[in-house]
Amino acid sequence: MSDWKFTVKEIAEKPELFSSGHRACAGCVPATVHRLVLKAARGPVIATHATGCIEVSSTIYPYTSWKIPWIHTAFENAAANASGIEAALKVLRKKGRIKNEKVDVIAFAGDGGTYDIGIQALSGAVERGHDFLYVLYDNEAYMNTGIQRSGGTPHGAWTTTSPAGKVIPGKPQFKKPIADIMVAHEIPYVATASPYYWKDLIAKARKGLEIEGPAFLHVIAPCTRGWRFPPEKGIEISRVMVETCIFPLWEAVDGEYRLSPPSKLIALKPEKKKPIKEYLKIQGRFRHLFTAEHEHVIEELQEVIDKRWKRLLKKCGMA
Amino acid sequence: MTVAKQKVLALSGDEAVAYAVKQSDVDVIAAYPITPQTIIVERLSEYVHNGEVETEFLCVESEHSALTACLTAAAVGARAFTATASAGLALMHEILYVTSGCRAPVVMAVANRALSAPINIHCDHSDTMVERDSGWIQIYTENSQEAYDSIIQAFKIAENPEILLPVIVGLDGFFLSHTLENVKILPDETVKNFLGVRRFPSVKNHEGKLVPFRLDPENPLTIGPLDLYDYYFEHKRQQEEAMRRASEIIKQVHEEYANISGRRYGDGLIEAYRMEDAEIATVCLGSTAGTVKTVVDKLRYRGVKAGLLRIRTFRPLPVKEITAALENVKVLGVMDRACSFGGFGGPVFHEIRHILYDAPTHPHVANYIYGLGGRDMSYMLINQIYQDLQKILETNRIEKLVQFIGLRE
Fold first, then answer.
1. Which CATH architecture has domain A19-315?
2. Are B57 and B139 part of one and the same domain?
3. Can you spell out the DSSP letters for B197-247?
4. How far apart are CA B394 and CA B390, in angstroms?
5. For the segment A107-132, what is each residue's pLDDT rounded down to a tens digit?
6. CB spacing of A88 vs B28 below 8 angstroms
7. Which structural domain, as residue segments, surrounds residue B306?
8. Would an 8 Å CB–CB cutoff place A145 in contact with chain B?
9. What tens digit of pLDDT does each residue of A207-248 get?
10. CA atoms within 13 A on the CB side of A98
11. Are A92 and B76 inside 8 Å of each other by CB?
12. Cβ contact, residue pair B75, A85, below 8 Å
């Protein structure tokens, strides 16, 4: 596994492969996530992107934020894009038609492009064993089309297609455990990451690139517009998500789960685990839950978080 | 150039396609099995597993991913091939437009098959007719020999730096895909030399620098960006211009290929069969043309001035060539193996009748929709069409402009 060590200075001095000047919103965490992931590059990279907010805001013709070769084709096929790129690089290198050097392939997709419409292509690509890193930047709804619920939207959250109605208060279903689904594919590397713990994120992206075969990195990426929080709060929220264990940090190498330091700390000192209310109250999308009528939704959510956290501890041998 | 010495193999249409792909030094194949295309992917898998080709074969989980992977592989610089039919092509629909829009020179064989519902595995042209506006060059073949020849030509057409458009080569499901035929095979070296390796035109990147049109870490290029009302229209216009240029390139490639193979299919765009002084004629695509030619021969023997215009290249539509070929025809029957529900006749009828609006002479044009879901188009039925055309010629009037032929009424 990766023995790459880096300092803040080294990261700061590495060239920006995802440049400024894009049209993402003020306080956009997904844009930060892209920048951080590319800081893990170890050599030449080709990136591909599912349709989504970062895809559109970073490539408005004739401008682009991508200082590496980049291609977008459609919404549901980021992993298939990566398959074709990886296969072509392999065979062209063998035939001597391109330079004989390792080129890393990264596929970026949002939660819609991963949990929902893109899961077939993703499942197929990892089953075939292509050597690529798939980065899910999860902002928990279809933000590009204006905040519609996805399989990644949490229970109770308001979106425009799971409105906080009089009868149904937000999204009735729970978030799909996508990273566990990827572990179940028996791929060599799966990890979760939060941009607050940015060194952990970069190190995991690097591992994903270094590992032979498919790697899946699930990065939580709060969205100021969709989650209804002030633009300066995104990184803080991505910390509280880890502290409340709604988004624990872990990695699974060859199927072996292991908690990452910030979550491991909570596992060792359970009193540090914050109640989910602390996370919910700092966002507008859960505001409707703080009423006598809907408070039970918070309890339901807490129950599921606790259940999933326990299950994770068991998988990590820490139960 | 001299015609190469060729061996003769007994191959089905699917096998002929696979053999052509094998000889074309294809870098990446991504495909998903569907009847009646399946033999193509089976044979190609054998070539790969037996080490007969240096090709990455992706057995993908859907046709959507098949075409996607071919597209991005081509964007990296690979020669890419896929094959499908019917529902598989329909599932690819979205990516067909993306492929042509990204100017990725992918070649695809389509074993033409009816669309569901009701589900039917047999031949008609509904699947590819849906895609006629998708920016792909479309070549329809008459027999397995032509399918073999056309696949090889298709790579050369698609990859021409002046064109960079994807190509569909259609072969009628079962009638060609599963029927054994003697196919003349060029020597491997001849095909290799004919195709050469891909060349990349230079394009301006976002920094105004000229870079090769491919995903190359040394010359970063953004492909498939968001393109709004300020540039999208120009890019679409460029696609249309490439299509217009393609007619000449298809003819040239066809001619070059004829020089090494000794085989010609008209001028590569259309094939006019006994059309010189024809008074009555039909227009058709694909394998039906073989039977029509027999009917025409019989009619000619009896002194009837009958002819056939087979359209080989349906996209780009060879307007000039079709107009010239139909100049002296008095009555024309357009045969459609697809239905445009609620439209005014079948898709080929739309095009042909439309072309003739500006022609110096206006023949009567009737439409015959036939053979949906693999219904056999027999000698008798084709003969019936020519009798109908003869009657129109004599009475100078069409009783029924659009007819379904060969079914229970």
1. 3-Layer(aba) Sandwich (3.40)
2. yes
3. -----EEE-TTS-EEESS-BTTB--EES-B--TTTHHHHHHHHHHHHHHHH
4. 6
5. 999 999 999 999 999 999 999 999 99
6. yes
7. 270-405
8. no
9. 999 999 999 999 999 999 999 999 999 999 999 999 999 999
10. 26
11. yes
12. yes
